[in-house]
Amino acid sequence: FGNLFSFSIDQKSTHRKGPVSQHYLNKFVRKDDMGKYFVPHAKTPFGYQRVITNPINLQRVAKDTLAYMNRFIKTHQHVINPSKLKKLISFNKVRHTLRFLINVIEEDKKKGRFRILNPKFIANNFGCLKWKGNALQARKSNDPFTSSIKRHEKIRLTNYAAYQIDGSYVKTSKYNTPLLSVPYETDEGMKTAPLAWVTQDGKREAAMQGTIFIKMPNKLLKGFRVHLTKNMKHYKKKGKKKRYYFREITGKNLRALYNNCKYRKNVVFAGDIYNIGIGKLIAVTHKSPVTGKDEIRLGILADTGSAFVKNTYKLDFYAGIFSSKSNLRKYMRHLPNTTDAYILYKK
Predict the structure, then answer these.
(1) What is the pairing mode between strands 314-322 and 211-215?
(2) Dihedral sign of CA atoms 48, 54, 56, 58 in order
(3) Residue from 122, 146, 154, 143 nearest 340 by CA
(4) What is d(CA 302, CA 281) in angstroms, rounded to the nearest whole number?
(5) What is the pLDDT of residues 43-60, one digit of tens each?
(6) pLDDT in tens, 199-219
(7) Do 332 and 120 meet the contact criterion of CB atoms below 8 Å apart?
(8) What would the pLDDT profile of 56-83 be if each residue is shown by its tens digit?
């Protein structure tokens, strides 16, 4: 899987249908002891920080994630209840945590005050595993923040987004780069066709993020998702660039995807689901680079991508829908490059 997906909890196959072979899992599952990176704490160290999250959106993601887990636990254990971490936090404990979170937020809707925004409530009701980032892996990946990860037992925090850009049905001087369809067979052989025309930057973001929304000249919103990429090794030999192909998302699927991309902002993490597992409630805590105040952000591990293969030092925080990378950078200035991280579970 070469890109971040549009939320792994929405992928019915989660990259493969049914159980996967041990040979395949060996490519994704770490062989070392996960207890080195996820350490039980006697007490959840929260009490004075400001909790920044949208409880309604967090509840929505918790419901979606729990529904996915209940439906696919028998066939997708490799991402729901991975063999390494289940010794530290069981599937039942993860499920119980999500149920508790959903119920608490539902009860608080009527009161107008959400307990999940109270750090003392979190400390009193949740146990935690302190996540110590794998500094050796960060160093091998040439991560510029390896020293902070090692010295302060932090993890690397990056971000990702979906983009909504302008485009065209036809090639123009501005929109001169096509999003190509998946190759199809004709009497003249395999062919592909442009699904839409965008700028080069637009095509680059579509390939990097995996999903793109395009506003056409007639104000119609279209959605596209990376569906296929050419074999990288083949193209390296030929001296050519990697080529991406797309499928259009239409009808109710487009509406559902757009709504998910909109309402899951700031409550979803992408990470190593093969070693950590989908559905973990994660808290990251740090001083805001903007205000200098201590804060906690809550999210659920519900996505992944190629950057997270055997990766136990990094998380991606989903930021929402943006019109450009520069707008995303401005928005994300309030988050640090490294952070303390905890997996929370209901006591």
Answers:
(1) unpaired
(2) negative
(3) 154
(4) 10
(5) 999 999 999 999 999 999
(6) 999 999 888 888 899 999 999
(7) no
(8) 999 999 999 999 999 999 888 888 999 8
